[in-house]
Amino acid sequence: MQAKDLAQLAEQFGSPLYVYDAAKIQSQYQRLTKAFSKVEKLRINYAMKALSNVAILELLREMGSCLDAVSIQEVQLGLHAGYSPDQIFFTPNGVSLEEIEEVAEMGVQINIDNLSILEQFGTKYPNVPVCIRINPHVMAGGNTNISVGHIDSKFGISIHQLPHLLRIVENTKMHIVGIHMHTGSDILDIEVFLYAAEILFDVAKNFKELEFLDFGSGFKVPYKKDDIETDIEELGKKLSKRFNSFCAEYGKDLTLIFEPGKFLVSEAGYFLAKVNVVKQTTSTVFAGIDSGFNHLIRPMFYGSQHHIENISNPKGKERFYSVVGYICETDTFANNRRIAEINEGDILSFRNAGAYCFSMSSNYNSRYKPAEVVWLNGQGHLIRARETFEDLLKNQISLPVETAVV
């Protein structure tokens, strides 16, 4: 998308505003499927926790994507968006047996990541096919908060617990149809991914009824000009060859599954915010915007970088600014960042705002969540209305007058 298109959308729908470029989502989806075109059976399960707006789910369904859900509410959203139960994969962590049972009754494929629930579920429902999430004990990811395959992670069943896992399967006679792993996000070194894949293959040899292997995702996308990213094409070439070789050894063409979230939607997203004030101090020039970490928390939570452009003055002389929000705690998006000269009233655009941005937003400070727009065929379509004061009050209940403290 061009700056003039974003500026027009900010004027039309107001700010702050999330904008998603449908064409970019489609090109990322096609890039991934092309990279693994040598695999006979490939399935993409979009990790909907990245961005779960129903309109985005519908767009991805039209592209051929399935879904990866981590809560029963995400499963329900997927069904609402037109996905059939067999197109949804449920990969929760630390949820109750009751939630897993309820999802299984919907006909959705479940993925279990701990021995306790596996034994309980297998005892009650030995005929329901199950996928198992293993922890390969491989440290991968760009931040400790998003590295989930290491030895101290709460995710997955440790590969060192394989004898216990096999005993449960033997005792319950349950049917294991898939093995799954996810090592972390922002993976740069594909050799680490391939190393973890070998662990998955070794585990898979212990199960004779497999239908698929799920390699998770975690592909890194670029956050700035000339930034490094996961080489999807190289990974596709190497992993496809090894996967096909394993299928030959196994004696069956299995389905290769990936669960991309950020890879599909991150670069498609833009967050637009208006500059309320330009504040000069003794050492810093602050650009204070009409938003905060209530709308975009990733820079504060993960230390992530979002490229910031002044789309109101894209060719202006660059100066150094610290871009901050209006929240009452430290609320800094960028420190001493070079940005085209900013004036009060200008619109700033934050790149890579498609993944884990709106979905992690909140009503902190009793602020409204922003609107969402999808840019499709050269036109902006509102896909979520901006919240109002009535939305803040919707589920709140006042105490009866007679119970008031005197």
Automatic annotation (TrEMBL):
Chain positions recorded as pyridoxal 5'-phosphate binding sites: 218, 356
Entry's EC annotation: 4.1.1.20
Annotated positions binding substrate: 298, 302, 329, 356
SUPFAM superfamilies according to UniProt: Alanine racemase C-terminal domain-like, PLP-binding barrel
Domain Orn/DAP/Arg decarboxylase 2 C-terminal: 18-354
BP terms from Gene Ontology: lysine biosynthetic process via diaminopimelate
Single GO MF annotation: pyridoxal phosphate binding
EC class name: lyase
InterPro entries documented for this protein: Ala_racemase/Decarboxylase_C, DAP_deCOOHase_LysA, De-COase2_C, De-COase2_N, De-COase2_pyr-phos_BS, Orn/DAP/Arg_de-COase, PLP-binding_barrel
Reactions that this protein is recorded to catalyse: meso-2,6-diaminopimelate + H(+) = L-lysine + CO2
Pfam families to which the protein is assigned, alphabetical: Orn_Arg_deC_N, Orn_DAP_Arg_deC
Subunit and partners: Homodimer.
Annotated protein name in UniProt: Diaminopimelate decarboxylase
Organism of provenance: Flavobacterium nackdongense
